[in-house]
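Researcher: Please translate sequence to structure tokens.
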Amino acid sequence: MTPVDPTSTALQEGPARAAARPRGSLATSHSDARFWLSLALLNGLLFLPIYLLNLEDSSFLPWQDGAGQPAQAVAWQLIAWRNNLDVFRLSLEVLLLAALWVNARWLWRRQRLYRVVFTVVYALAFSYALYESILLSLYQINPVFYAQYRLATDGVPFVVEHLRWPLLFYLAGLVAALAAIAVLVILIRTLIGGAAPQRLSRWTRLAVAALALWVLLAPLAFDLPLASPRAAISSLAAKLEQNVGDSLTLWRKIDAFDSRAPERAYDYSGQKLVRKPDIYLIFVESYGSVLYKRPDWRRDYEALLAELEQALAGQGWHAATALSESTTWGGGSWLAYTSALFGLRVDNHTQYLALLDEYLGQRYPDLGRFLHGQGYHSVFVTAIARELSASEQERYRNFYGVDNWVKYSRLNYQGPRYGWGPAPPDQYVLSYVRDEALGPVEHPTFLFYITQNSHYPWTPQPEVVQDWRTLNQPAADPLAPLPEQLSQPTKRRNYLHAVEYQLRFLTDFILDTGRDDAIYVLVGDHQPQQVSRPADGFETPLHVISRDARFVESLQAYGFDDGLIARDVAADLRHEGFYSLFVRALLASYGQGDRVLPDYLPYGVVTERPAAGLQSD
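Model: Translation complete:
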């Protein structure tokens, strides 16, 4: 005997029997309640990831500060557009599928098939919501498949390897994921088949139909961009359409790269430096302008800068500071420093990989190549314990034009390693390179380094010591433990502590180096994720420090302020404009005085080939 499925028998119920039931019956009320609850939860869960990742700046209810706004503005926020990233938005696809289910009688006998269709659409929508939320919240970049595919395939294994989470954590994550899937399955079964559509009241079916009509017509009436997370109505189809369009645009842009453009823009063959100061270009991890944009941070940060500036001035050092707009936010340091070194805006990993392939057999005319032509010896320092393969090392050595690459294996370090990477204390790394790895100085030095100890999660931090060699004490456990889940105030406190560590040890490094002709450039790679907001922008501090007062003062013509403190928190510069600015400033102070200075390109070089039919210069 075949078991009876109560749901299937309910679906076979004829219209006459459905009409015979008294309206407003208890069964109908329960069916309506279950339907609306499952619909509301399924709809709201699509917007939950981006809300949770922006809790600090979002309110649970749709409106923010509604009391101080006119009713028209509040109504617009509720029905059309709002900056608050709450869960009370409407999914066009979910509402259309729900309305179709309860109002299209021909579907009622195809329940299982329709449930599969709904499940597939919902799974795609929820997966895209997770993908979009992570990119927008942690990196402030729009979802573009072509830009993020290689970043995911290259980066996810690297991230998992360096998180150092215990196995129990991954098991807990798996259990949580399975539980979430089970909840979604239950909600979908409740919505599509939990109660036969005949058992829903006429008002429920009309209300769902009205909502479906609203999500179709409102975007046309209000010209809403359905792909934006801030629109009150969201559409997976619109998001996919925009993503594919942006992917094609990026593909065309990368394909149109013209290698002749950088050669023309950065042709400094007629220029010569008469004096050749050592140059230290140090990118400071997660050193962002957010430090100026939170009152509590700004007070402590500027007090620290004033103290360090006084220490530098006491030994004859001068400083100039500006804010520079990075090409990345919250991560992707290689994009930021490549943009600065190349004088080219590099803002996605796919573009970066295309450049690597383009310059396998030739050298990009970057800052290192210019300095090499002036007789400089380039030194790149990598402190992360995980090292590249021999082929990868050779590839990157050629790409950046490295004469001397100091890797972790050359540091002779046996002490505890910290944070992301993991890596030794930055104080140890730079001091070791200066005193042990450079050897006899026969040529002027160009040294590049990106610090590691201010990388998220910013704890634990090593101490700044008088003798850097004392940091190399063998440890029973070489990996300093990463913290468990931290509260937002603790993260903020740890971040400020990490920045203080970086700036104090770098100041000591400058004071101890003892080279009167050295130029130090300290620049942030990007804003710190999790403790900064989209409104904080992409700007990072840029300090130039030298004993040459005239050289430092000359930078004020480009928007720099005197000292270590930026007076204007708006970005005066861009990372891709640094190369041409720095070369121009070097030639003005140390070059042949009778030569015309090269152009300053504040937006870097434009490298797209001209379209067909257009003349190229």
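Researcher: Any highlights?
Model: The radius of gyration is 30 Å.
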